[in-house]
Design brief:
This protein has 16 helices and 16 strands. It is an alpha/beta fold and about 350 residues long. The chain folds into two domains: about 130 residues, 3-Layer(aba) Sandwich (Rossmann fold), CATH 3.40.50.720; about 130 residues, Vaccinia Virus protein VP39 (Rossmann fold, 3-Layer(aba) Sandwich), CATH 3.40.50.150. The protein has a seven-stranded mixed β-sheet with strand order 9-8-7-13-14-16-15, sandwiched between helices. It has a six-stranded mixed β-sheet with strand order 3-4-2-1-5-6. The chain has a three-stranded mixed β-sheet with strand order 10-12-11.
Length: about 350
């Protein structure tokens, strides 16, 4: 059983920041810093400055704050005999950077408050009590102890902002494919949020290029061109320059590059398709959802396929505040026969957390 009393007894990162007398420095610039600064201002928590790694400091300012070198802050703290708190404000997804952060955390109090990718709201301890019946239900749905551990550890991270909880529940990508997904030689794969084709190529390699068909959807035009180029030698591969959605329609997407193409109030008109219409009753055996906060809509566009064929599912459950609760419950209503698993790949913050659903 999930112990709500234990969760609610944890001191939240916001409680610590509100009560500390130590200087608070934000490490990093960009969207993550802006979200943190907004929440800190709302709570009337002052920061002492912003810093970056020494090699990125050029005497510039961010939101009116001079950007300091980490080494300067360390030296000043040492000379004046005070401790300070670091708020990490950028994502780390590759091993070299993760190790650098881990090393820094051993020397100082380092926190990474959890905020949603889409919307930017922070996860609060109060949300545990408000949603506990749903949280407890999802916890009971998981098919193995590892999934329950991941779920509980991520909740603890979301409350405390302490990265140790992410480290204790991290597994490599291969583990999920070897123990849960178990790809065969007759797969029909649907890649929703195909980006530049990296996950399509990963699928093809994992099947030794023996599969039935691949369907890949990517809404961003620049990413889509790369997708075409990177998959041009793959057989039976069908690409679509469109978003995955609950119906066939037109949406407004932002024009930013990278993986973060998403529905927005400003941008360009983009075709959106539901998977059920693309497959037209054909069987899919594996569907990956990583669509920058549109996962729930994309799942609605797969209802017929999920009900009829029970494809293996891999769903990103970290873009919106309550995705880790709402998406498993959504899928269970569509197909209650699934077994549910949760895995977190090496990443700070709790991004790259994926739900896996397989038919026993």
């Amino acid at each position: 059983m999930l112990d709500i009393e234990e969760l609610l007894s944890l001191k939240s990162c916001w409680e610590r920041l509100e009560k500390t007398k130590d200087p608070i420095f934000i490490y990093g610039m960009g969207d993550g810093s802006l979200k943190l600064m907004k929440e800190l201002e709302k709570r009337r928590i002052s920061i002492s400055g912003i810093f970056a790694s020494d090699e990125f400091v050029r005497g510039h300012y961010f939101e009116g704050h001079l950007v300091h070198k980490l080494s300067d802050i360390e030296e000043n703290a040492k000379q004046n005999g005070y401790d300070f708190i670091i708020l990490l404000a950028f994502a780390a997804g590759y091993q070299e950077l993760i190790k650098k952060i881990d090393k820094l955390e051993k020397k100082y109090c380092l926190l990474m408050p959890d905020t949603a990718v889409i919307g930017g709201e922070p996860f609060l301890k109060e949300h545990i009590a408000e949603r506990f019946s749903d949280i407890e239900r999802v916890y009971s749905m998981f098919a193995d102890d590892k999934s329950r551990q991941v779920f509980e550890s991520i909740l603890k991270y979301k409350i405390t902002g302490e990265l140790k909880y992410l480290r204790e529940c991290t597994t490599e990508t291969d583990e999920a494919f070897e123990s849960i997904i178990k790809l065969g030689s007759d797969e029909t794969y649907v890649d929703l949020g195909a980006f530049n084709g990296d996950t399509v190529l990963d699928f093809a390699e994992r099947t030794n290029y023996v599969y039935k068909e691949i369907y890949a959807l990517e809404p961003n035009k620049r990413n889509y061109k790369k997708l075409l180029r990177n998959t041009e030698n793959l057989e039976n591969t069908y690409t679509f320059n469109c978003a995955a959605w609950s119906e066939n329609t037109t949406l407004i997407f932002n024009t930013g590059g990278g993986r973060q193409s998403q529905v927005s109030q400003k941008g360009i008109e983009t075709q959106a398709r539901c998977v059920d219409s693309i497959l037209n009753s054909k069987k899919a055996t594996y569907i990956k959802f990583d669509v920058e906060g549109a996962e729930r809509e994309a799942i609605r566009g797969c209802v017929k396929t999920i009900k009829t064929h029970s494809p293996k599912l891999c769903v990103a459950v970290y873009h919106r505040l309550f995705d880790m609760f709402d998406i498993p419950l959504q899928i269970e209503k569509i197909n209650p026969n699934y077994k549910f698993y949760l895995r977190h790949y090496p990443y700070y913050p709790a991004w790259e957390t994926n739900l896996f659903c397989v038919n026993p």
